[in-house]
Fold these 2 entries.
Entry 1:
Amino acid sequence: MTLSEEELAEELRDGVVAGAPSRTRLIAGRFFRSGQGRLGFGVLALMFLLAFAGPLVSPWSYLDKDFTAFLQPPSPDHWFGTLQTGADVFAVTLRGMQKSLIVGLLAALVSTALAAVAGAFAGYFLGWTDRTLTWVSDLLLVLPAFLVLAIMSPLFGSGQWPLFVITLALFLWMVTSKVVRGMTISTKEHEFIQAARYMGVAPVRIIFRHVIPNLSSLLIVDATLNVSTAILTETSLSYFGFGIQPPDVSLGTLIADGSRTAVYAPWTFWFVAGLLVVTVLAVNLVGDALRDAFDPSSKRAR
Amino acid sequence: MSPVLDVRDLSVSFGGVPAVREVSCAVRRGEVLGIVGESGSGKSVTSAAVMGLLPPGARVTGSVRLHGRELIGAPARELTSCRGKAMSMVFQDPLSALTPVYRVGDQIAEAVRVHQRVDKEAALVRAVQLLDLVGIPRPSERALAFPHEFSGGMRQRVMIAMAIANDPGVIICDEPTTALDVTVQAQVLEVLKKAQQKTGAAIIMITHDLGVVAGFADRVLVMYAGRPVEVGGVDDVYYRPRMPYTVGLLGSIPRADKGGRWPLTPIEGSPPSPAALPPGCPFAPRCPMRIDACEEREPPLFEVGDGHRAACIRWKEVAPYTLGVPAVYGAPGSARRTPRRAQRTVLEVRGLVKDYPLLKGTLFRRRIGTVHAVAGVDFDLREGETLGLVGESGSGKTTTLTQILELAPPQQGGITVLGHDTARLDAARRTEIRRDMQVVFQDPLASLDPRMTVHDILAEPLRTHGQRRPGRRIAELLSLVGLDPSHAARYPQDFSGGQRQRIAIARALALEPRLLVLDEPVSALDVSIQAGVINLLGSLRARLGLSYLFVAHDLAVVRHIADRVAVMYLGRIAEIGQVDAVYQAPAHPYTQALLSAIPLPDPVRERARDRILLEGDLPSPADPPTGCRFRTRCPKFRAELTGDERRLCVDVEPEVRPLSADQGAACHYAERRDVV
Amino acid sequence: MAGFLARRVLNYAVLVVVAASLAYLLAATALDPRSNYADRTPKPPAAVVDAQLTALNLNDRTPLLQRYATWAAGVLHGDFGRSVGGTPVNDDLRRRMGVTFRLVVLGLVCGSLLGVLAGALAAARQYGWFDRLSTGLSFVVLAVPVVVLANMLILAATWANEHVFGRQVFLVSGEHSDGLGTGFWGHALDRLQHLILPTVSLSVGLIAVFSRYQRNMMLDVLGADYVRTAMAKGLSRGQALVRHALRTALIPVATYFAFTFGTLLTGATFTEKIFGWHGLGEQLINSIFRNDVNTVAAISFLAAVAVLCASLAADLLHAALDPRVRAR
């Protein structure tokens, strides 16, 4: 306790108490003590740095085409070589990473928020709220996400990628929301929720003040793992031309192009694929280490 | 006769933190050793260490000899051949101790086949015999059932059957009755006695309940902070304790056999964390007899009598425990009992009925019937009064409580809270009543949001009911329940169990309610802590003029705190009345059985007592017996009534009839009788 | 239980109907079969195009609901309409269903069995070398999307064929070679050569997922009281693990199976497309490019049915494994 009693009394009078940041600090401590967490975090930070600061040091932009070098192996001039079109692989890869990272982060954020709210409402109110939400999530599980995104892909062209993010998020939340629903039902049995109810606290307020905060560890971990799912889904869709549309590039479109020339020009495939795998791996490591940090008793990973 | 099991200087530590320190004990054939201690005292770790079932990472030193064979450091094969054969174990929670996916008979047969060369059929036949021995009706049929199809008491019988399958020399029972209701506990203890007679095994009975040990054990070992602090014959330890901790423990138990409202003597503070033991006697910080010398070094076990040893340097001065007011602890000023006058009624329940759909299966849910959880309950609670609502699991007391707290129109009957009928409440009025009726739950850790500070927890009711600046009130509340106001910035996890319950009480008092509903408020606490909370509740009632609806399964606690008591059985009230009247001369056969099943921490009385044992399990509330709901298990119905008299019990459901000024029983043949 | 099952099946049937209808409506709105005729030379007259589209029930000038009604009426009679090329969708899909079925079942069996085995082994010796190795490997595998994995496998196989074997051992395109005259065994070997890589690409991810899940479930169960009871009876650790822990830990894994099935179908789509297998997945991607509304809707219908069958199978498996959920 860092507050002296006088300061505390002062604060008490004002009705605000500086909540001891003990829990956050404790979890951060546990997270960074694990080798896995440090490695994942470090690599992920590096990837972000590369994606967003890399273009500043690269002599080529992703739009440039070097008409003197078509499909050339890596050289001091073109660090990752060039594509068939003469584009610099390093520059386009970074551009693709930027897009993939942003799409992944946003989609994960949106889908986890959706999952938290839908799951908590379904689990808290049960009855027809639950039946409706469960039915909708079942329907979305039955409807192949890939199919709907593919059908809608013509709409994602010309800079409409935020729409893509939303649609992607719409197909990522169901499983998390089922977990949240189950945990809400058991959290609801906890006496502190009952106590709040019998105190007269409104249900929606109970959900946002007691239920969701108490599931935050699950949500943070799931959000992290959803980032990797979103990146992977985006990549697969873009690979078949259903995701990010030209002239935008993402890791998926680059891998699709690269895989055609990979046999005789390996640099067009392996750099992009490698960076993708390393990024997703780092995200998964962070998620796993976070899970351990939140719940040291269970040493689990997906 | 040499001991069957001889434990010498057994110590266990987990990652350098000692959990058990220098435990020595021995049991002979046919002898029962009770190991008593509160949570965290190391008693369960001791039993796991003896069985060799500690998780990896535990460091065990010392010696455990079974029939002269050393077990510590013995190869895994040797241990495996001992376990279940020479030494077996009964665990606390019979629900999780049986593998859910195998049939009960197969699980017992497996225990037989591990150690005996018999074929599958013979092992199954033996399993059925064992089930019969432990008193499971229709054993050959029940052997084919899965564990989830058994009640708690029946599962514990299965565990005992498994434990005696190979005629072991020692049976270790780790809190075997803690998860069970008191009448079922009496049945299971009876089965254990029978099993012991049959096998001649020595029993080590680990428990926190001093009453269970008093009647069952020959010798007692009291543990504190991972170490034995007093060992001896049962009578020596109970009547002539020489360790202040034992004295405190005995003094803090509420007694079902004692009338009058004497305050309990709680032991101040809470047990030390095993990671930070004080340098001297671990009990010194809580001990009323502490002197400087206590803190110098940990006292060894002194020989204080024949086979009686205690770890206290002032053992000669520890006055013998006298019933009533212990001499060692100064008793706080006594509270007086409020007489039941023509006072205002704060809560009235009339003919309350609540049914639930009975659902089957977790995956394929379907409704297969109706659970009549509450089937017509009447009682009232006057201002300044405490009504104890007692009953075993399935009695409907929790449903009754929930119905009152919901403030929703009841399915049938009526609830009137503070003069308002819940069937005719609008939202605004309901919120208003919530101010005046607050609740304290059983588990203080579960009832406080772990993500909020104590300040926020206490501020929530105040803010909900429109108080903007709750700071000053929070400080007041914390001092009211005996906590330091400067602790408001801490989280519930930073407090001990008793302190957490005090926080929960403070929250309930925040809005200055008139009626407090207490749902098993002390049953999750250790006895030494429990006493402090009970005393606090008593003094708050006197100071703030509160009315309590006190729901509990522990009849001793209820006798201690309540003015009136209502005993529930299968959704109905069996007996209701003034506490002393009901406890001294219960009139309903169920109340009589319930009271006679409570173990008393008094070895001589306990040995002399004649228990009324109930047969079988509680009938399903989905399909209650016709007429009197208790008749299927009623000792009176079975043994005393004639055929004609029985017809009335079968045909007509009895209503509560007054027997005296303030005692009534729902029995056609009610007859007051002293059973405690 | 039978009545209960019937209710669940009915519920699923409603889901399938809604899912298929949604898929049809989405496809009919977003896809534009008319554009198929735009690049033809000579450009067909508008009236001819209209007539053809109308014949195929693809004309965007017919109101959407009317097209839907025509389609739905056909589906009720078991007819999914015609593709943009004019061939019946039913015939085409019937042929392809077998291909996809083979791939998915094989991948599922390999993936779940090996995954459960690996997970159980890893949990039995937590933090042992196998646990560490399998954990590390599954982390890497889970970070590789199927499209990248499949391409990596093709590259590796091409390299291995050239530099290690010196002949075509792994065949990377199609499900069998044409014009092979080497009798039954020759055909069988040829099929196997085609089968290895797609199966690997499909099941590796499943193995990783299942092994992680099984490991966690096992670890949860290892601390359970009944495992302690089993050891207190005198069973050795190994016996207690296999007889009591593994058996119980299988229950949640069986329910998990339903969740993975959707992912598996998507994975199969990518695998088919990349390895040139003429299955439903490949056809789905192709038909989206060809604006083939009827085929897309039919495949969505089949996918929905498959997912629900899997979840029904998972429920039944759960009931078979766990006496607690079986109705007496």
Entry 2:
Amino acid sequence: MKLFDRFFSGMRGGVHPEGRKDLSAARGIRVPPLPKKLFVPLQQHIGAPASPIVCVGERVLKGQLIAVAQGNVSAPVHAPTSGIIIALGDHVAPHPSGLPVPTFTLACDGLEEWAALQACDDPFALSAEDIAARVAAAGIVGLGGATFPSALKLNLSRGVQTLIINGGECEPYLTCDDRIMRERATAIVEGISLIAQAVAAKEVIVGIEDNKQEAIEAMRGAARASSMKVVAMPSMYPMGSEKQIIQVLTGQEIPAGGRPADIGVLVHNVATAFAVHQAIRFGRPLISRIVTVSGGAIKSPCNVEVLVGTPVQELIDFASGYSQAAARMVLGGPMMGQHISNTGIPVVKGSSGILALTADEIGHDAASPCIRCSTCVRACPVGLLPLEMAAHIRGSDLAGAVDLGLKDCIACGSCSYVCPAHIPLVHYFNYAKGDLAAQERSKLKQEATKKLAEARGERIARIERERAEMMAKRKAARAAKEAAAKAAAEAEAV
Amino acid sequence: MLVAAIVSLTVLGTVLGLLLGLAARYLRVEGNPIIAEIEQMLPGSQCGQCGYPGCTGAAQALADGSAPVNLCPPGGVALVQALADKLGVEADLSGVEDKGPQVAEVKEEICIGCTRCFKVCPTDAIMGAAQQIHVVFREACTACSKCVDVCPTEALSLQDVPVTLQSWYWNKPKEATA
């Protein structure tokens, strides 16, 4: 079976978790009622948080810019609906840490009054720079979950050979990309063409897992007039990961520590392509996304188009609430998503799913010692040795784990999923990566403070020197004056 | 036979001695290279908490072996371990409590604007002027506590660096079973 997979999928390792997509795959995208309040965080992307430009008490319109991007890696934030900003303060972040982040609280007025939008009737007449600028202004980030600012990716990848559009959606339960492809294929195809134009890609491939036949047909139908290829890929986790989808569709592997652009490839998610279409054709910024609400504990699982900032609880209520007690709430997919404990947190640009899982579904067992069966080695799609890396990290030898390729780990969770001893392998890797990043930060800080200390030393020395010089000059001047006075007195005496 | 042995050994000894003498003159090492390497590892803010005149003095003492590897409070546990690895000694971690990264903070209500902290800060991390409330730039502060020592109103204190989304990361898994 393993050999068979390897032969047909073109991917190393991988696992076959139970799909459970049937819970929500047949449910069309619906729009829940407008909540009373939206909680819009300033940080919904990788990079620096956006900087607010509206005041508390101000009325904002739907789609109005309320926070601007700060620095190169950042994205702006727009008002998801019209209403009044009633607060800007800390609110729990949709993040495993549960830390508070600066968040706008928007009291919706229910009028849905749009701000003036910069639509474009002939988007294909736009230049590559113009497309990237409009994508940046719309606050579009990678909607597959990584939330990297899309415009930056467009600018860094200009002139690539291949544009890959990721319709893999390999995470169990999630059906949001499946539904958007089925229902909005024409808009997605136009978005893809715009991205292809922005990076001057020579070839466009849309990769969709073969468990989404309707989506494949819809996309093939919409793409008939264009040169893009819609390819069915074998259903396997983590097919939707950037490195893996490139390997499967092009046969090339990204070098360790490299980026897709290094081998002439750019990958964007299907939902991102749709957002690009909305931004350029209609001038609409990214203020909503499709979210799957599912899991064994949800009464009627569904796919919804929600405004950014909608509290998770509202969506659970929209899905008729719980059918039984949820043992765990997850934001995102069950393999890589985040465990959340508070349903007051808002949906953000990167939230693809809200899952309420029952105790049976999570099947949590206590970890036992590693039996060195190497099942994790066979499951790792990157070809690493998870058991060895975890052993090094456990012994606080992070450098040893890095030598084994820790930095190439994509944290897909395949190793933890298959581990018969239930060892939290990915947790070890996430800890180690975080600790290494913290060490790197403190090293940078130390270098910076060292420079400051040196600069201060030099400045103090310079001030001392200047003072000494001035004293010497004054002394000389006084001596000259005295000498002159003496000479004058002597002259007078004579 | 005896003469040949004496002569050959004398010549050999003279030549080798000369070579050694020349080598000592031309291949001389300026200072102990490990001092520079250790100095690179130290925070470099010259705070003097170790009791030596600045980080160079501390590096010299470390290289001589006259100072313990846990002499630098701002360096924390990470530095103790790095120094112990470098010098090949056992690190005594019992004396060092790792408080995690800290920075100085001014309590604005009781700052009288005396500028004392501003004058002693080795990294120019404090901004202020006479009769004005002073403020600490977190990014430049090394938590050397020099300002805390000179503050007449105890407005300055060391605080833990707040954890943000940018700096947070997963803790180490508790079950030691991997």
